[in-house]
Amino acid sequence: MFLKGKSAVVTGSTSGIGLAIARALAGEGANVMLNGFGEAAAIERARTEIAAASGAEALYDPADMTRPEQIAGMIARAHDAWGGPDIVVNNAGIQFVSGIADFPPEKWDAIIVINLTSAFHVMRAAVPYMRAKGWGRIVSTASAHSLVASPNKSAYVAAKHGLVGLSKAVALETATDGITVNCISPGYVWTPLVESQIPDTMKARGLTREQVMNDLLLAAQPTKEFVTPEQVAAFALFLCRDEAKAITGANLSADGGWTAA
Ligand code: NAD
Fold first, then answer.
1. What is the distance of C-alpha 78 from the center of its chain?
2. 63, CA 20 to 30 Å: which among 40, 76, 110, 164?
């Protein structure tokens, strides 16, 4: 239990990758603040299950990542509860698939705000607490789309490239403070976010579900396997270890070879 006594805030942790990361951090004894949208009863089940499994505390904060004051409030709440956060994971994210000429401006704004700007607000609020303790871990879920592009995902690709730039800058600013700042860039992970893109992509390209999965999504992934949320979570957990203290300002791929091509 190498994270006993530490505390973590994981944005977008009511589902998919974020939920797996929250489980993994709690599994090593960290107090965890869950965040994200969803059905209240399902969130409460996840919260109690995580607390029971770890023996540490689990709280839920409904902060909307489009609202800076709610983000600051969530970080302040983690500080009041636990004197943290020692670890923040910027994971909340949304996707929208459309060609540039038809891309709705409000979808562009939402993707940039949720996938990129929220990480700025989280880091801005959390870094002073980490500096005061001389220890901190900031991990952001970027994407293979932080390194390469795909058509019809302009806002997402821009936001994920931006998230890596933000992380590099903050890594340099905090390099002598015991804080590391890194991105994990998964390929396609089987989560609700990916599953929900399938109907639109089927419509946009006139393909069947199997064609979208095998010929489009996994076409880019040489292993021909989806990454799992648990694999991404294990990677995030490693970055929280003291052995990982030299890893900062990095954008680390877990993409089944996608960006090697
Ligand atoms: P998901 O849809 O399962 O989870 C997204 C989470 O973000 C949910 O908890 C949701 O409630 C939360 N969220 C969305 N809007 C929010 C808002 N305004 N405020 C607070 N929370 C909000 O998706 P996922 O696949 O687990 O994605 C998690 C992250 O991983 C995202 O940043 C995504 O871009 C990234 N990613 C996913 C994949 C993939 O293939 N699934 C690949 C690379 C990167």
1. 18
2. 164
Task: Decide if 129 is catalytic.
Answer: no
Which segments in the chain show pLDDT lower than 70?
none
Q: Whose alpha carbon is nearest atom 36 of ligand 1?
A: 143
CA 60 → CA 30, 68, 235, distances in Å? 14, 17, 23
Contact 249, 172 (CB under 8 A): yes
- C-alpha to C-alpha distance for 73 and 83, rounded to whole angstroms: 14
**Res 204: pLDDT:** 87
Integer CA distances (angstroms), 124 to 68, 105, 161, in order: 10, 27, 19
> E strands along the chain, which residues?
7-10, 31-35, 58-61, 87-90, 136-141, 179-186, 251-254
Residue of 244, 236, 247, 193 whose CA lies nearest to 217: 193
User: What are the residue boundaries of the structural domains of the chain, listed by start?
Assistant: 7-189+228-250
In CATH, the number for domain 7-189+228-250 is: 3.40.50.720
CB atoms within 10 A of CB 141: 29
Identify the residue whose C-alpha is closest to ligand 1 atom 35: 141
The string of pLDDT tens digits covering residues 61-115 is 999 999 999 999 999 999 999 998 999 999 999 999 999 999 999 999 999 999 9
Residues whose CB is less than 8 angstroms from the CB of residue 246 and which lie 6 or more positions away in sequence, other chains included: none
8 Å CB contact between 35 and 122: no
